[in-house]
Design a protein that fits this description.
- This protein has 211 residues and is α+β, with helices and mostly antiparallel strands.
- It is built from nine helices and four strands.
- A four-stranded mixed sheet has the order 2-1-3-4, with helices on one face.
- It starts with a strand and ends in a 14-residue tail after the last helix.
Length: 211
């Protein structure tokens, strides 16, 4: 099993966390080490990450995570209770489908180069959508009927592996996180765990300082 990704790719970080939590052996393959055009041949979508299983490619982190949960049932990343499972998926969905997907580098580059928005306008766009999402996530955790250590369970899982990379992204993009104590409390627990630490960008072999 090979994970094709890049150190600074939060979707890839989600998958690395999941693989670590499930203790699934895998080989990390930086896309920068491939020959020109090779990654696009393997994954016509051209987006990161992709999971290579014996030559069969799974694109998109959401599809990869579904595959891992279905093919390696234990430990489960989703709660047993159907309602909590749905809530965890909904929490993660806001991050993956709304926040991450419209603030990624290719979107920001399009706004700046093709639509000719200046850097201030692009930053305004980014902070608007990040803040909107973070407020919703914070309220979701604050309004839970039951308090859990890790979002929707007392064990780290689906919601957490989406949240932690997104908080790092938000910081990197200039978003002040001080207004989100519930999110930060969960983050503080997660970042102490090996599964999350080993998935961090700086722990990857293609991280610039490691080259």
């Amino acid at each position: 099993m090979r994970l094709l990704s890049r150190w600074q790719n939060s979707a890839g970080e989600r998958v690395r966390i999941a693989l670590n939590l499930k203790a699934i052996p895998y080989t990390y393959l930086p896309v920068g080490s491939l020959a020109p055009g090779e990654y696009l041949r393997l994954n016509p979508q051209g987006l990161l990450p992709a999971l290579d299983i014996g030559g069969q490619i799974i694109p998109q982190s959401s599809a990869i995570l579904d595959y891992l949960e279905e093919s390696h049932a234990l430990p489960a990343l989703l709660p047993k209770d159907p309602l909590l499972r749905a809530q965890a998926r909904g929490f993660a969905g806001l991050i993956a489908s709304e926040m991450h997907s419209i603030t990624v580098q290719r979107v920001r580059r399009f706004l700046q180069t093709d639509l000719e928005l200046n850097s201030e306008k692009v930053q305004q766009w980014v902070l608007h959508w990040l803040t909107s999402g973070l407020k919703a996530l914070e309220e979701t955790l604050r309004d839970r009927h039951e308090h859990f250590a890790f979002c929707f369970s007392d064990e780290p899982g689906w919601a957490n592996l989406h949240l932690i990379p997104q908080l790092s992204n938000a910081r990197r993009l200039g978003c002040d996180l001080s207004a989100y104590p519930e999110l930060l409390a969960v983050e503080a627990k997660c970042v102490e765990l090996p599964a999350f630490r080993l998935a961090r960008p700086e722990a990857q072999p293609d991280f610039p300082s490691a080259i």
